Amino acid sequence: MSLHPLLSASWPIQLHVYTLVLAFVAGTGQLLVTRKGSRTHRILGRCFLGLMLVSALVTPLIHVRNPQGRFFGLSLLHLYVPLVVGLCALAWFGAVRHRIRLHRFAVFALFFGSLVFTGYVQIFLADGITHEIFFGTREVCRGQPQDVR
């Protein structure tokens, strides 16, 4: 495990990863430690939503996967941006209006969909900076020919 790929990445990538890691910590604390509706839960919830919004809003500045793409260098992963912004709005609306089922749905979708599932894919399945942090580079996926017999 080496943080060198992250530390040598551009500032939008670094900010994106840092905010997601902090959001994961805050979200885990929300789910496992705090009492629902308490002052601590509300403060951590605001931090969680703020971190998720910052992460989503910095994402359009990241053009690593498709730098010469037809849509300003955006890839399919950028479709998460409106989804995350919408889920943050639903989570906030549900909390303010005391619509607990809506709030719970939006927060669970943000935490498990955007953080846990996408994090798993980026760490174990995708060939990118997050994978390089945990496992180093995979030369086979970098366009090197394989010996197929």
What does this protein look like?
The chain is an all-alpha fold and 149 residues long. It has one domain. It has 6 helices and no strands. The chain has helices spanning 4-7, 11-32, 39-58, 80-96, 100-125, 129-135. Helix 2 runs antiparallel to helix 3 (39-58) and helix 3 (39-58) runs antiparallel to helix 4. The protein is globular. The protein starts with a helix and ends in a 14-residue tail after the last helix. The relative contact order is 0.12. Mean pLDDT is 83; it is low at 144-149.
How is this structure best summarized?
The chain is mostly helical and 149 residues long. 64% of the residues lie in helices and 0% in strands.
Main attributes of the structure:
single chain, 149 residues, mainly alpha, 6 helices, 64% helix, disordered C terminus
Domains counted in the coordinates: how many?
A: 1
Q: What percentage of the residues does DSSP assign to strands (E)?
A: under 5%
Q: Look at the helices and sheets and give the structural class.
A: mainly alpha
Low-confidence stretches: 144-149
The overall average pLDDT, rounded, is 83
Count of helical regions = 6
The profile of the biggest β sheet is:
none
Measured distance between first and last alpha carbons: 32 Å
Principal-axis shape equals globular
Taking all Cα atoms into account, the compactness measure Rg is 17 Å
How many individual β-strands? 0
Helix content: 55-70%
Quaternary structure classification: single chain
Summarize the helix and strand pattern as letters.
Answer: HHHHHH
